[in-house]
From TrEMBL:
The chain crosses the membrane at residues 6-25, 110-129, 135-152, 282-302. This is Type II secretion system F family protein. InterPro entries: T2SS_GspF_dom. It comes from Nocardioides bigeumensis. It is a multi-pass membrane protein. Residues 176-299 form the Type II secretion system protein GspF domain.
Length: 313
């Protein structure tokens, strides 16, 4: 095939892609009939305001997912069948504080895998120019890159969970002390919780806001804190929620329980800091043993070795 034919094919392909994207964006920008009509129908519940009538959207809102939505959803279903573990993923999403479904995460995993696949494919094409016989190894490399991208998004989710739990542990002693002060001043547990949530921010404050919302919808205080203990992945926060639930049920002094919980978290943080310092001390010995010590020995013995060389006949 000549250069002219190749240019025509590539131009046709690029033009088709631009037309598909433009058509999809035009359709995506149109206002849905339900969005235009339902606000004026006061006798019917609005879509999205009621959880049972919420519009299900599996793919994230982006141009890529808008254009390639069905293939991405099919690939996400395939990843779900291969990897499984939807319950574990759902729990980690809750612990990470992400407002996503398991299917949304699977789509992101597919997109990460496709990005890694594209990078490996580009490198393979560059390599094929100099070594045309490396087709099989290039295909294996692209497949491995796709798998690494899929697993990399899962690992990133685990790192998000760990980072959020660290932030919660950092916020916990302060919020527990504020709750204890409010309760000791004579406020009820619900009023103290409302005061703390309104005057604080952060991950733990949002979790306490969910507890407060559950209490205001009629759920008992003990049951709401039991729910916090069930969905959190931090043992200290779970013990705090269980302690508050027991204190409310049995009438024990809540302020003392909160002070004790805050003290326990601070002590646990102090122990964790000491353990981290002990581990870092070992890593600090690596440059001393492998860099500073050999240089010191070289400076000590090099003049003697040079002198022996001069004195030897």
């Amino acid at each position: 095939m000549t250069t002219t034919i190749w240019g025509a094919l590539l131009g046709a392909l690029a033009g088709t892609g631009v037309l598909v994207v433009a058509a999809r964006l035009r359709e995506h920008g149109r206002t849905r009939m339900a969005t235009r009509v339902l606000p004026y129908v006061r006798d019917l519940p609005r879509i999205g305001a009621t959880p049972a009538l919420a519009v299900a959207t599996a793919a994230p809102v982006s141009v890529v997912s808008g254009v390639f939505g069905p293939p991405l959803r099919s690939a996400a279903d395939a990843v779900e069948r291969v990897l499984g573990g939807a319950t574990s993923v759902r729990r980690r999403l809750d612990r990470a504080g992400l407002d996503k479904t398991v299917h949304d995460l699977r789509i992101e995993q597919v997109m990460w895998g496709l990005a890694a696949f594209a990078a490996a494919a580009v490198w393979s094409l560059v390599r094929a120019v100099s070594d045309p016989s490396s087709l099989v190894s290039s295909l294996l490399l692209c497949a491995a890159a796709f798998a690494c991208g899929v697993l990399g998004r899962d690992h990133h989710l685990s790192s998000q969970v760990a980072a959020r739990e660290r932030r919660i542990l950092q916020e916990f002693p302060t919020l527990a002390e504020l709750l204890a002060l409010a309760v000791a001043a004579g406020e009820s547990p619900v009023a103290a919780l409302d005061r703390v949530v309104r005057r604080s921010g952060g991950e733990l404050s949002r979790e306490l806001g969910r507890v407060l919302a559950a209490i205001r919808t009629g759920e008992p205080v003990a049951a709401a804190f039991d729910g916090l203990a069930a969905r959190t992945g931090i043992a200290l926060v779970a013990r705090f929620a269980e302690g508050v639930a027991v204190a409310v049920e049995r009438g024990t002094p809540l302020a003392e329980v909160l002070h004790a919980q805050a003290a326990d978290v601070r002590e646990a943080g102090r122990r964790g800091l000491i353990e981290a310092a002990a581990r870092k001390e070992v890593f600090m010995m690596v440059p001393v043993v492998f860099l500073v010590l050999p240089v010191t020995i070289l400076f000590a013995f090099w003049p003697g070795a040079v002198g022996i060389g001069f004195s030897t006949p």
